[in-house]
Specification:
The protein has two domains: 196 residues, EAL domain (TIM Barrel, Alpha-Beta Barrel); 221 residues, Hypothetical protein af1432 (Orthogonal Bundle), CATH 1.10.3210.10. The longest helix is centred in the last third of the chain and has 22 residues. It is α/β, with parallel strands linked by helices. It has an eight-stranded mixed beta barrel with strand order 1-2-3-4-5-6-7-8. Helix 13 packs across helix 16. Helix content is 48%, strand content 12%. It contains 19 helices and nine strands.
Length: 421
């Protein structure tokens, strides 16, 4: 289990009310960025903010500023975002050439808010202003008279933008920037970045690659992709979290992974899987994988034998029932963040209802409590057969997902990479 980090620094208005938060890359509890790969840093911030921690938990209903590299802006890397809360920060070192300007025009037309980071007005970057909603000016980077002239020129431009004074370090700085006409303020005087830390859910790299390979096929089959996802509780959790985010606007509760995929759509799914792969999350304990799969398969078999028409829901309940161990968090807190139907949540939390009885049976088998290995209307000998079959199915699934040497060692080896045809 790895820890993940995001730094959050508020942006204030002139009344010192929080206007928005900037989300910053961190890879440890030390409050400073150590960015070697800008693309990967942006990917990590997006994944941690949108999926792992959740945007609502980080910023509530406020805007979230995120630094974007050129590769994201021009479409070389996936852009799995909606326009409601994310403000795209264009870094100051990105060349404002025709390709970038066209990319910003497209994003602006789509309704995204665009901010120019550490902006200094020159003839070269003047065309960027056309697409900006917000311009951030680093206060200490300019002499006071130069800063005054800078603000005046930006105010005199035909484009209406909000101005943010960055690196406001003292009360005098704050008052001076207010006097100049800045709308918004950010800096250590007001608030330092705060580290948000949470345990990360590891993923099977092989599972991600298999899903991504299937997504490359123009005739990608939702049923097949759903089957692959069903073998990875961590990735299933991330997908459900993302679907439940405010960016998606979920129309109804989710009862199966296939239903979740239909709502998510292939393009967004492809972007998200790519994003997760870029962050290189790894190290899933095989014993926990096996427990998730055995529970899921046994619940599914019970549903089928009982004549139920919702065996996919039974499977998902079994699969997600180990999330509290995966995340080291209370299960009720986890489920409050997932777009699951109420009977599904009650089944996982309290083993209530028909689905909950199947999960209770699976947990009893796991504990060796043979008196508890039963289900209404089903013969106990049949259920015991299902238990053995579920273990066999889980072992085959694990061998399919992971290289054989890692299965023997009981861990996932980060360096092992399959070759996709």
């Amino acid at each position: 289990m790895n820890d993940l980090f995001v730094a959050r620094q508020p942006i204030f208005d002139s009344n010192l009310d929080v206007f928005a938060y900037e989300l910053l890359f961190r890879n440890s509890e030390q409050n400073r960025a150590n960015v070697i790969d800008g693309d990967k840093a942006t990917s990590q911030v997006l994944l941690n903010s949108l999926i792992e921690i959740g945007l609502c938990n980080l910023v509530g209903s406020k805007l979230a500023f995120v630094n974007f590299t050129r590769s994201f802006l021009t479409g070389d890397l996936p852009f799995p975002l909606e326009k409601d809360q994310i403000v795209i920060e264009v870094l100051e070192d990105i060349e404002p050439d025709t390709e970038l300007l066209n990319a910003l025009r497209k994003l602006s037309d789509q309704g995204f808010m665009i901010a120019l980071d550490d902006f200094v007005l020159t003839d070269k970057n003047l065309p960027l202003i056309e697409f900006a909603n917000i311009i951030k000016v680093e206060y200490p980077a300019l002499e006071k008279q130069e800063l005054r002239e800078h603000v005046q020129k930006l105010r005199d431009s035909s484009i209406q933008v909000q101005l943010i004074a960055e690196k406001v370090e003292t009360y005098e700085d704050f008052e001076f920037c207010k006097e100049l006409g800045f709308d918004l303020f950010q800096g250590y005087f007001l608030s330092k970045p705060r580290i948000i830390k949470q345990a990360s859910i590891p993923d099977s790299q092989m599972s991600l690659l298999r899903i991504l390979a299937n997504l490359q096929d123009p005739s990608a089959d939702f049923k097949k992709i759903s089957s692959l996802l069903s073998q990875d509780a961590g990735l299933s959790y991330k997908l459900l979290r993302y679907i439940n985010s405010s960016a998606i606007g979920l129309p109804r509760a989710i009862e199966s992974l296939q239903q979740a995929l239909v709502l998510l759509g292939l393009n967004r799914l492809k972007s998200m899987v790519t994003l997760i792969m870029m962050t290189d999350i790894d190290h899933k304990p095989i014993c926990l994988v096996e427990s998730s799969l055995v529970r899921a398969r046994l619940c599914e078999q019970i549903a089928e034998a009982a004549g139920r028409n919702d065996k996919e829901t039974f499977f998902m309940v079994g699969l997600l029932s180990t999330l509290d161990v995966l995340l080291d968090r209370r299960m009720d807190d986890i489920l409050s963040e997932l777009p699951l139907a109420e009977d599904v949540k009650m089944a996982i939390l309290y083993q209530e209802g028909a689905i909950g009885e199947a999960l209770r049976c699976a947990i009893a088998y796991e504990k060796g409590d043979w008196d508890g290995v039963n289900y209404p209307s089903l013969d106990q000998a049949l259920i015991r057969y299902f238990c053995h079959e579920a273990v066999s199915w889980a072992n085959i699934s694990i061998e399919t997902l992971l290289p054989r040497e890692n299965v023997k060692s009981g861990k996932v080896n980060k360096t092992s990479r399959p070759v996709l045809a």
